[in-house]
């Protein structure tokens, strides 16, 4: 009984764990690590949402099992959000399921639709559940580029011609974690046309729908006429309303797919605690003011990060959405790979970032920097980096002079 279980063998130890251990060890020594590693929002949930939870929890009727697919009011609020924000009409009874965070929804959708050996087209690098949700259910992943451009379209076309069996689904995630790439409606239209032609399901992860700074608001795939025939889209309250610990998200779209997810969930859970769903309903119905505040905090942090890291000698391309920057490892250190580089930053600059390889092998030249510390701490991280890079340069020059 010492062999790893079949399913567990398909889940390699979390790459981030190595970096986390280094972080924990440094903290245990009393070092103040500035943690830009995990995408765990640090902002408080808006107080009116907390108040609503407290009010609902005092009613003992809310203490019973809730509804697995979400209470009706919450599903109606999500329908109203899609109508307002994307001009997409959804039937709250048949086209919406509330999930225990979008991650749970995504993983259980994978469970609902995958037979052993089914092929799924998944961007690389990407948020880990996009691949592992399917690997856990016995599916097979074929990597496609993360950037939404001609290469992506060529890759899915090649994949359909050469994969046996034919792929069952394409994963989309724009704005993307970790790359912050964004897709246009024209790009989505191309993917929808392709998916319909080849009878492939589209699973779109729109977790960062509301975290955008410069350009137009990110579109939904469901805005493409006819997309509903093949698409399910996942959204999340975690980033939009700074509610990561509450575990509320949604799957919306094609009725057959939503019914499949609802069926699986009906065997697994009784829905989130009702007061949480009541409070989430209030958040969704409150409109844009709370969201605008969250956006503004991340926008300022983004500006400080790009400017201060740039001055320190670490070029960070400005993301125009998400709460992440995706930065190439400076040339001199690229050979180390992202895990060793991230460990070095913890040790020598007291700064934690996420190694790009944790999101897929094609991410190994990069690190992901999360905007989860305040502006003051981000500036401090930049000062630490500058000191570290200057010391390294100094040592390099001395070694060269001595050689
Ligand atoms: C792209 C993406 N999808 C899903 C999630 C998970 O969101 P939730 O908290 O709703 O499960 C995250 C969280 O970081 C994410 O970045």
Automatic annotation (TrEMBL):
Stretches assigned to the Aminotransferase class I/classII large domain: 32-383
CDD domains: AAT_like (cd00609)
The entry's keywords: Aminotransferase, Transferase
Database matches in PROSITE patterns: AA_TRANSFER_CLASS_1
Molecular function, one GO term: pyridoxal phosphate binding
Top-level lineage group: Bacteria
Keyword Cytoplasm carried by entry: no
Cofactor(s) it depends on: pyridoxal 5'-phosphate
Gene3D superfamilies reported for this sequence: Aspartate Aminotransferase, domain 1 (3.90.1150.10), Type I PLP-dependent aspartate aminotransferase-like (Major domain) (3.40.640.10)
SUPFAM superfamilies: PLP-dependent transferases
Matching Pfam families: Aminotran_1_2
NCBIfam families: PRK09148.1
Family, per entry: Belongs to the class-I pyridoxal-phosphate-dependent aminotransferase family.
Protein name, per record: Aminotransferase
Species annotation: Aureimonas ureilytica
């Amino acid at each position: 009984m010492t062999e790893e279980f079949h399913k567990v063998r398909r889940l390699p130890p979390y790459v981030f764990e190595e970096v986390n251990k280094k972080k924990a060890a440094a903290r245990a020594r009393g070092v103040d690590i500035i943690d830009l590693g995990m995408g765990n929002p640090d902002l408080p949930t808006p107080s009116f949402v907390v108040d609503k939870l407290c009010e609902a929890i005092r009613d003992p009727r809310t203490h019973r099992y809730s509804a697995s697919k979400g209470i009706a009011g919450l599903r109606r609020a999500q329908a109203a959000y899609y109508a307002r924000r994307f001009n997409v009409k959804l039937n709250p009874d048949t086209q919406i399921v509330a999930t225990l965070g979008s991650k749970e929804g995504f993983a259980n959708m994978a469970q609902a639709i995958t037979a052993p050996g089914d092929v799924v087209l998944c961007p690389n690098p990407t948020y880990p559940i996009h691949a592992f949700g399917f690997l856990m259910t016995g599916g097979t992943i074929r990597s496609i580029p993360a950037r939404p451009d001609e290469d992506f379209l060529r890759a899915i076309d090649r994949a359909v011609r050469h994969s046996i069996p034919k792929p069952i689904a394409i994963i989309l995630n724009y704005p993307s974690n970790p790359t912050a790439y964004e897709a246009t409606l024209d790009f989505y239209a191309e993917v929808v046309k392709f998916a319909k032609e080849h009878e492939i399901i589209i699973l779109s992860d729109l977790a960062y729908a509301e975290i955008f700074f410069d350009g137009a608001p990110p579109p939904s795939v469901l805005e493409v006429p006819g997309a509903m025939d093949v698409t399910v889209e996942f959204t999340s309250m975690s980033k939009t309303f700074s509610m990561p610990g509450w575990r509320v998200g949604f799957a919306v779209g094609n009725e057959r797919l939503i019914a499949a997810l609802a069926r699986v969930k009906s065997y697994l859970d009784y829905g989130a605690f009702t007061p949480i769903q009541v409070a989430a309903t209030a958040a969704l119905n409150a409109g844009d003011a709370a969201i605008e505040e969250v956006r503004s905090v991340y926008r300022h942090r983004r500006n400080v990060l790009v400017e201060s890291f740039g001055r320190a000698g670490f070029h960070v391309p400005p993301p125009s959405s998400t709460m992440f920057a995706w930065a190439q490892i400076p040339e001199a250190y690229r050979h180390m790979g992202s895990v060793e580089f991230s460990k070095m930053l913890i040790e020598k600059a007291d700064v934690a970032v996420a190694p790009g390889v944790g999101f897929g092998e094609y991410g190994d030249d990069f690190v992901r920097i999360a905007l989860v510390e305040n502006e003051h701490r981000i500036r401090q991280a930049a000062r630490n980096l500058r000191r570290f890079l200057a010391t390294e340069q100094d040592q390099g020059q001395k070694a060269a002079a001595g050689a």
